[in-house]
Amino acid sequence: MASVKATNITNLDASPSVLADASEVHGSVRVFKDSYEASSLASGSDITVARLPIGAKVVDIHVKADALGSNATLAVGNGTTADKYIAAAAMNTANKLISLSNDGKIEAIGDEITSTITNILVTTGGATTSGTITTVVYYTVS
Questions:
Q1: The pTM of the whole model exceeds 0.85
Q2: Is the pLDDT of residue 97 over 90?
Q3: Which of 8, 33, 48, 65 shows the greatest Cβ crowding within 10 Å of its Cβ?
């Protein structure tokens, strides 16, 4: 059995110690919560659900919705990549929750907002969408 250390612990234990970025160790998590009531929203539409400051690091994203339709899907991304955080997931059952931590892309955890693309978008797919969509974006800033 091995005993190993992750990157930030290795840096903190080094001599001399290498300080971690405050957004990764002992940082404060901030929240951007919003909701949207979709009514016959066309497939391929996007909903701006958060606007983060430059330098923010995305820690997690939760999306919970009504049953939006038999073929309705939601993806979470930014203005460049529609599924940067969470690939399209079926949203055909009530109170379904998708999240970056459970359903998302591993490389997107800790993604830093580095440009003028600061919006987080939910994109509809598969069918016309109707129902409540609630999002919570968790992020840190240095």
A1: yes
A2: yes
A3: 65
